[in-house]
Queue: 3 jobs
Job 1
Amino acid sequence: MSTSPSDHRPLDPAAARELFVARLRAELHPDEERTPEVSDARRAYREAVCLLSRFDPQRLRLPGEEDATGGAVLELVDDCTTLGMQDQAGWSLKSDLRDRTLRGLAGPAAARHLLECHLDQLPGEPGPERFALAYLSGHPPAMDRLTTDELADALQAVLWLSRVPGTTGLPDTAELQLTLERARLLDPLERLVRSPFQGRDRELAELRDYVVAPGGPAAAGAQPEQHPRLVPALVVHGPGGMGKSTLLAKFVLDSIHHPAGCFPFAYIDFERPTLSIQEPLTLIAEVARQLGIQFPAHRTELDALAHECQGGARSQREGQERVTQLHELATTRAVLGRRSSQEFQSLAAGRETDLIRRLAEVLRRAVAERKDGEHPEDPPFALVVDSFEEAQYRGSPVVGRMVAIGLSFQSVYPRMRLIVSGRAPVEHPAKTVESLDIELGELDPEAAVGLLTSCGVKDPEVARALADRVGGHPLSLKLAARAAILAGAGAERTCELIRSLPERRHQVFRRVDQLLVQGILYDRILSHITDENVRRLARPGLVLRFITPEIIKEVLAEPCGLQVASADEARALFEEFGRLDMVEPARPDAVRYRSDVRAIMLRLPGGDRTDVMREVERRAVEHYAARDGLEARAEEIYHRLRLDENPRSVEERWLPGVERFLVGAQQDMTPRAAGLLTARLGGGTPDQVAAGADQEDWERIAAREVEDLLAQGYAQAAFDRLGRRQPWTPCSPLHALLAEALNRLCRREEALRATADAIDGAERAGCGERRLELLLLSARLSEEAGDLESAGRALRVAEDVAVGLGQDLEAMGALLARARLTAGADGADPEADRQLAERLRMLPDAVLADRPVLVRAVASQIYDRAPGALDHALEVVGLPADDETLDTLGAAMRRATSRQPALLGRVMEILDEAAGPSREPAGGAPTGITGILRLARDRGTLDTLARRLLAVRDKSGEIVAGVAAAMGAGTGARTASHAAPGPEHGGHAQDEGSGPAGPEDR
């Protein structure tokens, strides 16, 4: 189909008929060998555009033509791709044709002539074409002066010209590529210090002492130790807007150019979408990538390590999802859920520390290769982690795993230094030593004046007077500079601005003063909005997270005293509103205030505008409540909480899925409202939020912290955390957690008593779900004590309770626990398995698909008594996709083919078909069974492979048992070696010592 513009010149009828016949023949006979011949006109147009990144085919002229004929539209329609939006579309020659055409040019003179003929097609700003022309003209650019974008354009130009025969004098493409990568590595840091950096000399010196001193800051000036001690992390913290990220960027950039020599570093910003603060493996992958740029000789090894980390992160996501699902059902939470949580954290930490040690070993070798006689010691390595606030809370598993990563790295490379930007250091039981910290305060007076000057306040006296009133808060100073510029150069207006600001008071009142100053300054900025109607909307509109023409008309206008009668009037106001420099696009037809603006203004009292702003929020609730969709419901909840409605009534409006629209909204709320959001969303809880939260919300917040501590194995810390804000509500999750903590502290009798009391309380209060969890916990505690009769009784009661509540999946969870209990007894009870199979068969597939982890656990339990269960589960929910699943299945397949070599051909046939006709992933072709299984997972054929394995005639039952064990991976299911039928079932005896036959894992 043609992609050319519709207004090209018409073809001559004979030429059009010839072109139509040729294309029809090509479509009807696609397999016929096509002629490689190209017409002279088409070749000429290809040559004309082969050094253009994009062009307008209507304006393109061949060399020697005075005016464009439009011939490019016809000749190049099949040779190009379109770029840009439809109204500004350009064409670009396809890469294979570009290479072929460049290689066919007569030489550099011809290439230069082509570029000079098309200067009118070149963009005004630098691009690959202008760099190519510079190289061809003998005036190559100075690489050390180019920006990152310019380096990318220069590299593209060099790659093009390297294909032109006879072209010389070009820089080495590998060196240019490395220069570009280094520039991109520094780009995020240089963006942060784009405006002049002021002050912070003391903090910069502290950072350098921490990193450069061989034993940390305490050892500065001392002799290096033979066995350096472990140095704790350094946390940089301070209020928002103080410049934490800018300080770290300045430190790293200064270190690169320091006279004493630079050192390797990695800068990790968790606000980047490719990094996840909940997945430390993404951090390790990014460190490996950045070190690969700094140590090109080890690039291949480091890239392979980064690739392994990314694969591990994907596997961990599957494991985390399994943990989450097992915690969502009351009947799987107390047994399978908590067991899988602890197993997941242990495996994740083990994998992360193994990978970071390997990374540190590569760094150690890379550094050793660069040493010289003058500097025999290892240089420091600075690992700088920005935006870490989300993970900094008591009991955070991420903090525990980051501590382990830091210790493991230092154990191999002792001069690693970890610098973290976030909140003040929090207590965590994984810490063996206290973190060091730098608290960022206000800038000193000289630096404050310097910042004002750099922001446009040219009069030194005005800058000093403003700094005296505003103080040293960087954000306040920038607001003051903006307000001063808007006030103009007149002395009277400037004096009025200064007089409007309160005099600074004692340190105790400093935070209140800052809020007051920032509010006054924003009011001054708002007062300079020229359109009166927009000015009336500006301050009340701050309470809204999104502003659209419809919102202006239905929510905002009337409380602000405006009459907006039509959609056109609302659209006109919206267009003017969108031009304010304090708003930014949110999506098509919607804008929002910048986050720094709202963060400040919502903390301030509204004064005489409070009633107006509350009316805007009430109308917002009505507006969003009348609309469907998760985003509308999230906005309704947001404004209800802002109006300080009862959290329990607001919770009734909650829908699954609104969470992603409310992330970060806690900062706009009162402590009580923020308590509900934190209880629902998770994450850290400032002390004032915890103190102001309703009892029910506080219990859920505390429960999450205790769950995290137990998952990491810190039972005593979990028990200590539980001793607050008692008595708890009857339905509190803390009752079960108290019993869990007591049991792990070997206080089983107390745990049993606490569980029994909590079951009675939950029954009296009508807390069905909590009662189910406690009954399952009671059964587990009784089983551990050897009292299987009491355990079975509790599980039957739990099943009856779940049935009475109409909760089929909860009943299935209780029945699964009973089946596993009897399976571990002397005489297995087939009745529990039969009932499980019946429930699995009766429930609709749509219901089962919502609980894949439970379905997999059930299928892996009953597969030998319900032959169709595994196939049904594979069809409805599939296998898990984590590495544990593949390792389990691969081990079973190797055992089966070892004991029955005749199976090897059929198994390899299934593997080959699942891997596809060419199994060549980025890391090369896999040679082992588990490697091929990973490839099948990546290509989406793993479930089909597993279903085909079920049909293999395997007398030992090893393969079917392996599929069952893989299905139940991570849920405490029977392992393949235990699940496979023995001789009494017609199979063969196990031979645990036999090795694999055929392909081995590598």
Job 2
Amino acid sequence: MAEWRGTDAVGHGHSWGDERLSLLSSVGAALTDREVMQHALDQAVCELGGLAGLVHWSCGPAGSRTLRLVLASGLPLAALGGWEEIRQDDTPLAPARAVRDGRFVWLPAASGEAARPGDPPGTGPGGTAPAASGCLPGAATVASVPLTGPDGPVGALSVLTGPREPAPEQAAFLEAVARWAERRLARSGVGVGDCDEHPWWQQRPGGSVVQQSLDAVKAGSWEWCIHTGEMRWDRAGLTLLGLPGGYRRRIESWLGLVHPEDMPRVMAATEKSLRERSGYEAEYRVRRPDGTTGWVQSRAHLELDENGEPVRMLGKVWDTTESRMARESVGQALRYMSDAFFAVNRDWRITFLNVEAERLVGPAGEVLGRPLWEGPAGTVPELEDRCRRAAADGRPTGFDIQWPTDDRWYHIRLVPVPDGLTAYLTDVTERRTRAARRAEAERAGADQAARINELGNALADTVTTQDVIQVVAAHVLPPFGASGLLVLCLEGGRLNVVGSVGYPGAFLTKVDGVPAFGGYRLLNEVLSSRRPRFISSAEEYEQLFPDLTGNPALARKNAWAVLPLIASGNAIGTCAVSFDRPRRLSADERTLLSALSGMVAQALARARLYDTEHARAQALQRGLLPRVLPCPAALTPAVRYLPASSGTDIGGDWYDVIPLSAERVALVIGDVMGHGLAEAATMGRLRTAVHTLANLELPPEEVLAHLNEVVCDLGDDSFATCLYAVYDPITGYCSLARAGHPPPLIVRPDGNVECLEPTPDPPLGAGEPPFATVDLRLPDDSLLVMYTDGLVESAARDIDAGIAECTQVLTSEYGRLLTCPPPRPRISGRRAGGRHGPDHDRLDRLCDLLVGAMLPTRRLTADDTALLIARLHGLASGNTAGWPLPADPVAAGLARTHVREQLEAWGLGELIKTTELLASELVANVIRHARGPTRLRLIRGTSLICEVSDASATTPRIRRAAETDEGGRGLQLVSALSQRWGTRYTAEGKCIWTEQPIAWTGAPP
């Protein structure tokens, strides 16, 4: 270790010894001798640049020649294990050599000869390495000086240093410190060689020597010469035993002090030590000469001669009266404490058990010394394994067990001790019972919360009243084991059944519509008081309500929970949960049902509001759509409309079939984008506009152009799609125009399905005319399938995939069966079109097939759907006849002739005169007011149609002629004689037509 030294003015090193001694000399009398010695030791270590400082003192009886370590500085005691006690005759150690020789000594820290100049540090003579002492470095050395008393050296002051020998001035400083310490101890009134009573190293800081003496530990030393029987005690030992100073120093004096009851044990320990040459230890009572008795603990070791025979025993003794009394108090406390306690040794034999443990393990007289596992403990599952594991691990552990003798639960805590294992058993039966009840209550609360949460989530998804009834039946009845549910709502002062589960129809008929506040007392009381009633049996029911006797048998129920339904502070009805068997509900179940009834009431109020609004919306929707479709001879229609299954808003899908002149028919289907009353109103406007434009006999592209103007006038956020088609049964042509609408599907008579070009013109309101028209010649009995996007498009399916899927349905085996036309004759003038024929039934089933395949029942749809299917029927060529007429007055006569001859050929003689008059008036009107060429045509269909066409674009109109006017009554006559009449524009000009019903007098020929 490096030495710290100062430097004088000329650079020569010098020691600080004088200064250090000067500082030590200034220490006052306020410090204790121990504190003074500590300061001296610290200064010595600093001066020598050492590792630590030691003070050894010669203690024990005279001649014991033992040096005890009484003070240390710089290192913990764990590093000085080999320096605690040194025999004075152990001269290889520096403190012992210094005491023996009475001079300064410098030796290696390990046992060996004195170090000589030139020897390697840490080695003995000849370079041999001595055994290391303690945990000190191998190169450590010790510098020691004796501490001298009146009769010679009594101790040593030592400094542990490095391998370098101390300088002469350092050795001189160490000796000077020792002399100073001797003088300081002599002035304090404590003899330098006195260690019999209250030695200086046991003094506490900050107190007087007298007070510290009173607080000193009661301990002494003794020496017994085995051969001579002489036994010596130091002053502390004499005080502890109560012996006077002039006692007889014989072993018999000590034996006379030992309590007779403890004598066998003391002598056995002594004989064992002498026989086995081992240490001696015993605790016993002493009877002092003054008559007092106390407990002492004695411990000693033997000194052997060269033959290994014991010659002397050196020991210590200390007072254990207080600790013994404390142990006995603890034993008494353990003996009678409320918890069971027992201890076992390393062989698992019972060594102690208290009164409570005797009740569990057995009487002490029977089980002490026996293995623990032979008693009830051996039957406790896993107890032995856990005890052995705790003893092996050396760590306390605890767990709960059920003891077999009383079937009660105990918490056992196992604590390993040096000689075995201790166990504490605390009765926790009541605590476990309370915990189980608390856990059960928590589980019940959690179950209730889960049920409420589950019901709340399910009710949140309900829409209609029936949805609420189904959810309540599924989430409330099973957990309670109930079998019946009856929900009644207050409407117009009466309770009406809105849903039930598990009740016979006869009982429902009886309670449906009862007065809300009279007529059925159980329901009336619950509704008026707003408090639930719980009835546990049919007998209790009839006892409480004798006027309702017989109702339990009619309802086939034996217990009830009748709950009021309160929503937003208003009583809206009652809910009855019933049971097949008598049942008394617990308080928790009643509370839960009452809580659930509030949730049901809120959901029911919301659902009934939805039902009301939805019913109104559906009524408005039905009012805006055609109630009954016309059935012209040119086609057989079938239609389906499905509102959206989610939400109360109505949609804007619409359809229509409009008969035109000359047996032609207009088919239209459209969709106003969006949902709500505004969209429904827009749909109604468009449908009315289509009827008006169709009656004007405009072509499809012009109809869409006018509809586009109507939609644009509604605002920039209004849009609609539309498909308008006109079918002419005479020519077989179908003219179609589309504005943003899905393409129609055409099913030909052979079953092949054709889809028009999928790209339409922009929707109405988003584009500008013109709109393209497609003219198709369709064979007789073809199907025209028109639909809105709700049928083929959804969030999970794009429109192209939907059209392809719809085509697959039409071409399936069942689809082909329904699209195939039924065997029947082509239409003629003797036969009306057939709404009620077999073809209409097939088309109805085809609509159901498409809707069922494209829109499954359980799938919620966000858009409404319209589907229109029409079977096209051509008109045979024999049912039409036409003739050109000259542009002069004779044309009227020729027209009458043609009409007479053709009607006679068709067998319609009853219509000849009327038709002649109509044709004559129309031809005369053309000759007078228009220009040629003129043409006459007759069409026999469901009615007789007479047409006169010309090249003029002037539209005829009825004039209100006065009584004196000679003309102006021709069109009035035409209007009076025909069922209906009108004018349509053609590519060459216009055509004026009339229509007369054909009256059949018998079966068609």
Job 3
Amino acid sequence: MNKYILYTSCLMLSWGMGLSTPCNAQNKRNAKRAKTTKAALIVNINTTIVDEDNRPIKDAEIIASEGAITHYTDKEGKVSIQSRANGIILVEALGYEDIIVDLAKEQFPKVLKMKKTEMLASGKYKIERPDGGVTYQKNLVGAIGSTTGEDLSTYPDFSLSNTLQGRVPGLVVRSNVNGLGNNTATLYVRGLHGYTNNDAIVIVDGIERSMDDIIPEEVETIDVLKDATAKILYGARAANGVLVVTTRRGEANKRVILASVEAGVMLTTRLPKFLNSYDYATLYNEARRNDGMPDFYSSDQLNGYKNSSGVNDLLYPNVDYYDYFLQKQSMYRKAMVDLNGGNNKVRYSMIVNYVGGNGFEKIGDRPDLNRLNVRGNLDIKITDYLSVVADAAARLELRDWSSVDGSTTFSNLSTLRPNEYPLTISSDALGLEPDAKGVPFFGASIRQPENLFANMEYGGFTSERYVTSQTNIGLDFTLDKFVKGLRASAFMTFDNYNYFRQGQVNVYPTYAINMINGEPEFRQMKQLNLQDDQSRLGEETRRTLGWRANVGYSNRFGKHDVAAMLAYHYYQDEVKGDAQDVKNTNTTLRLNYGFDNKYVFEGDLALMGSNRFEKGSRYFLSGAIGAGWILSNEAFLKDCDVVNFLKIKASMGILGYDRSTDFLLYKTAWQNGDNLSLGEQNKSTYHTTQLVRLGNKNLKWERSTEWNIGVEGFFLRNRLKAEINYFNELRDNIIGIQSSAYADVLGNFVSYHNIGKVRNNGIDAYVQWSDRNGDFSYQVGANITWSKNKLLKWDEVNFPDSYLRSVGKPTDAMMGYEALGLFGKDVSLGRNTSQLLGNYQEGDIAYADLNNDGVVDARDRKMLGNSYPRTVLGIDANLQYKNWGLYILGTAELGLNVWKNNAYYQNKGEGKYSVLALDRWHPENNPNGTYPRLTTTEGENNFVNSSFWLGNGSYFRLKNVELSYTITNKKENALAKKIKIFGRGTNLFSLSKEKDLDPELINAGINNYPVYRTLTGGVTVTF
């Protein structure tokens, strides 16, 4: 596989180099034939960029060398560039019309005047709308945040979603624990909206797709749609927020060939620490004495563990599972070729990317991931009125590992006791002949008949294949020849997704050891079972279909700007074997009006359709309106140098939502039940029928009523930009079972109703300062999202004790008991309150009797914390000095809690002991201990959700750093225009009150892979 990886990377890089070489070779041949031709001449241009009043424009961008080199004007507006005599030069500046100078037709002027235009009204600030239209940032009345693929490319990761953390205000990215390349993030927009199902949807090039099927280099922009006017056009699935991913398209008058390679290591961060065999056995004896039982391990056995020879000690094994089965680093690798360019007729973008890596397992076949992405986007202008869009993309992913996946591996590492069994047993000890193939004999125990070492090293293998193909075809009609401003388009997408897993599972004999009269006796726990063939372990086939047709009109009459767009959108998601397909339609009408570049208005209507409801209720009419006032165009701010652009905006709307609604809830459903044997000798079999649910044909759509008020602006010669939005949302008609209103004897004879209501509100904001001074330029910024919701109505008993109710609290409330301390240390065991949670004694946790009824039971639980962050921060800085560059990103989640209820924190029963057990309370051995007494039972009193196990989940993390050095060759005839050498790092350190495990992912390293730090280096060459 390593040879395959090396071959693939070299092939891609060589191909990119080869594509660039013929172009330069052709130029060389031309030069030899006619050294004086205009195509072969290189010209030096010295110019000054000024506005209409002859004032110099600082930091104007001059793009030369077919898009490969960017120059900036100094404070006097001056710049020197080199170009081919027939080259094309682009000039851009914020607040001015773009200028294209074709040197084959004209000379570049000594002084170039740029015409002022409306701020945020150029192509760079164009926002593609889902109905086929466009809106410029200046006229936007809604709330949309964005980032670019170029920004995200500094973060080396297997999942695009993980690169978004801390980038966009209003977007909350929650990481997850999973195996190699599977730890995709959950995306939230502006908090928790309803009772369940709060994540946003992702749209890639017009249809709902997974963003983790693509890479940052494929992405042009990612827009986060946050308010009603922005979301309504995406239909019934969009009320929780939408991330719109637009892949890169070719740019006219540019031709860039880019090749990049990157490699590095992934390093484990915080891992749990567990006790060795001697300490475990010592404390286990103490736990038995706490439970009134004699010691299990004798002093000779304790000495044996203390002097253990290691993992294969027959009688006294001592296994540090994390050290033996894991290595602290694994590999990350990536290679890419990118071609982008075109002219006024044809534009193209093509990307080929390989990314791969290995897992942290040391034993057996290390998990190996290899992924290949290919994308080609093509735009062709057929005639003056017809353009064609044709896109194709594919992803091939290969994964291989042993028969034990990451989840099973780490669950074993965190639960297998250090003295559970020796990993291998000699044939002499067993009295058996050695295996002819050299396979050892494996230890086991009565509790654990399987051997982790045997399963990972000899237990077989697993292979996964994941293949996707995505196709987009579109037609754009410009119908100005019939009616000025009239446009129409049609767009279709078709995707296929295929997943297949196969493997082979081999089982080898394992032997548990019992001591009989001082001699070991072996009991076979597993029998030999070797597979001859591979097995199909899982598969899934999925396809999606979407299409859109629209017709629109836009024009300007004096001071009046008018636009209208009518569109129809259809979406279908089909999974082979599923009883129901997802089918949605959305018919929309969008009206826009602007007056005198000062006042802008938008109105939207959407008839949303869903197949989740009864035929008469499958459509929901949604509406949204918004308005904006551009104060910077008013006379009192028109010539203000401090305020360059300032807009106040507000919007409101009512949206339907169907993603939280299951299929066929309007139908009463039955299923085949168990068989019943009756009659003489029970020889007669009768079939039974069971009720699944009682249908409700009167179910309504879940509804979202939303407000947004915001201010955005550019200040101090566009160096400072900022935006702040306040949002308020009422989600009602939430569907649930109203079981609390009926007696339990009814069972499932209770139907679903519209019973829930949730209020969510908060703010999101960002501020950014950027400037350039000679060879030094910098940009620093920060964004914040604060949100909090409250459950206003739900199905629950109206308890007299308000602290028990869910209504009135956030939907992420963490309910539990209030811990007062430990009996015998902090609280007297003889207090006048009984606890009914389980047996308790000195050293166990004492709880507060909240209702003062003399007992602690389920009615004494209250809200202790919340699991979703109240505040999310992102802070970044981008510094450039001459050829050096430094990018830094920090992220933070504040105001949240975590339950410490995994195998590291809760040591009980026959389980493993972590180092926390050393601080257990014991009246003699450790009277100042803060951890509950040890017990060989399940400890029902201690291990319930309570404030004792509530942790502070707030943290700050240095998320991403890139240090780079760029060599720019400004000579027009150079083969390589730019060479960027870079080093990158992720998850470099974190600050939090939780010191043992990662506060963001408290189960990382326990249930699956740990949080890892990535350090890479690479080079990018632009031709």
